[in-house]
Write a structure and sequence with these properties.
Elements: E1 9-11, E2 21-24, H1 30-44, E3 58-67, H2 73-90, E4 97-109, H3 116-119, E5 123-127, E6 132-138, E7 152-156, E8 160-164, H4 166-171, E9 172-175
Amino acid sequence: STWGRSLSVSRSSGCPAFNGLFVWPDMINEQESAGLLKQLNQQLTRRRYEEGHWDNVIHKYREMERDMQWFNEENQIVLNRLRAFLVEFGGWQLRQLMHVLDYAPDGELGPHVDSIKFSGHVISGLSLISPCVMRLKPTENVVCVDREQQFVDVLLPARSLYVMCDDIRYNWTHQI
């Protein structure tokens, strides 16, 4: 795996190796983050936090999906720059539809492996407001001694971009 600078990672003892996780801190600046948040919050603040999702993975959240064309010109420039970076770095073509999640202070995203049908072969995310820890746990496809005790915690700083593909995408659950 390639890790961004200043990336904080903790692994449980004996945790098996993996590949396909990439994190880049400071991929957008504070002004760009504020611009994205301003536009997104015009819609998100009109919604109430949902208690649970149909798949029972997300709790106390607000969400929306937006096509790239929905964003104003300034924000499209930022998002297109990130998309171009991902194409250049890994050849990753991302969906035009963006899934936006906002968690309540006590909200959570439980452990899961995203459906290929809804998420594609590459998962990427941009952490806008605050840092968070993403916990990765091996699925039954990963050989390990004590699956319940194995995990990797990855700090996702505010304004960081992450990608999950290959082994980590399919064989490890992720949660926040």
